[in-house]
Amino acid sequence: RLYQVPFEMPDCEGESETRTLHLIGDFSAPAEFFVTLGVFSFLYTMAALVLYLRFHSLYGENKKLPFADFCVTVCFAFFWLVAAAAWGKGLTDVKAATRPASLIAAMAVCQGQEVVCNAGTTPAMGLANISVVR
Fold it and tell me: Which of 10, 13, 32, 38 has the least CB density, counted as fewest CB within 10 Å?
């Protein structure tokens, strides 16, 4: 929800005045889907582990239970692939929206002819990239 993050920037007309810049974009849905699926996968894994270890005889005697387990596992694998792709696209959109060149272009104070604006540093996105690879 980048639109909720305000940035204060100086106003060149008055030294003490500032203007507020809001980013554009809401990329929370792919991240929430990714995290929700991860939580449900964890909970299903714990339930399956209890079933395998505690009720092993029930799992071995019932022929439909292993097939149902297989179907649920295949569904989780498919949705995990979809969630990772969605989060990858969402992260790409977040990177594009927070790129220093994009932020500078959105600032009215940097549009003057004799004004020189530059970014101090590029944001570190290494951990976010790793979250997509997982």
Answer: 13
Residue 24 · residue 97 · CB < 8 Å: yes
Domain boundaries, the chain: 27-110
Share of the chain above pLDDT 70, in %: 81
The candidate with the shortest Cα–Cα distance to 94, out of 123, 120, 117, 121, is 123
Token output for 124: 């570190």
Let me know: does 90 contact 1? Beta carbons within 8 Å. no
- 100 in Cβ contact with 119 (< 8 Å): yes
- Whole-structure pTM value: 0.66
**The two structure tokens encoding residue 37:** 């699926």
Tens-digit pLDDT profile for residues 20-65? 776 777 788 888 898 899 999 999 999 989 988 888 888 778 888 8
What digits encode the pLDDT tens for the residues 84-98?
888 888 888 878 777
